[in-house]
Amino acid sequence: MLQNYQQNTVFQNSRKKPSGPKHKPSTGSGVNKAEERARKNEQIEHMVAEYRKTGDHKIREKILLANLSLISYIAERLAVSLPQSVELGDLKSLGILGLIDAIENYKPEKQVRFTSYAALRIKGSIIDGLRSLDWVPRSVRKKARDLEKCLHELEGELGRPASEKEMSEKLGISLSEYQALLEKVSPITFLSLNDLVYEDDDQSISLGDVIEDAGNFGPHSILERKEVKQLLV
């Protein structure tokens, strides 16, 4: 049981002075990028203002396309701290909903730049979406984090994987209580059906390929059923 839980739970360089005439360091690249961002933000502001006047959905579509990179940036930053079972594409989809909400509810009179406002709504939409999909109580997640922290500390002290008995002694509880705690936190573990369980140069097998579907009959089951029918006849 513990093994399954553990498996589911990573000077500035010196530079020679040029022998030729002295040149001032070039800052053109940074300036150009800043100017480009400023122009893009200004264009987005104009499009948002135009959309609020006309309600033209084609303009809203242009605003969405112009902010896709912002959605990707926020989603990728949040994905770093999430389990691998959470798909990046799902986060981006939630971010698009947040961006649409930002377009519809943006108020220029608040004197907040649209990009800044949209970033907050995108992040909030992703977090709200993750919470709505999470059926595990926060108390259970806290216990899981505390348990994982304790496990890493004990294994660091021992220099090897810890046994269930050693973990229960570390926590100051009985072995049966520790096993019950493992059962309680086990539902928070997620696996993706797209995770590879085997891969070589010729083929790759995902977790979904090796899980039995009790609702379908395999080739052997179909053959056996045919033979039984023939015998009965």
Lay out the secondary structure.
Layout (H helix, E strand, L loop, with lengths): L1 H7 L19 H27 L2 H10 L1 H12 L8 H18 L8 H20 L4 H21 L5 H8 L3 H11 L10 E4 L4 E3 H4 L8 H14 L1
Antiparallel strand pairs: 1-2
Helix pairs in contact: 2-3, 4-5, 4-6, 5-6, 7-9, 8-9
Describe what this molecule looks like in 3D.
The chain is mainly α and 233 residues long. It folds into two domains: 36-133, Orthogonal Bundle (Rna Polymerase Sigma Factor, Chain: A), CATH 1.10.1740.10; 136-210, PhyR, sigma-like (SL) domain (Butyryl-CoA Dehydrogenase, subunit A, domain 3), CATH 1.20.140. The chain has eleven helices and two strands. The protein has helices at 2-8, 28-54, 57-66, 68-79, 88-105, 114-133, 138-158, 164-171, 175-185, 207-210, 219-232; strands at residues 196-199, 204-206. Strands 1-2 form a two-stranded antiparallel sheet. α2 (28-54) runs antiparallel to α3 (57-66). The model is unreliable at 1-26 (pLDDT under 50).
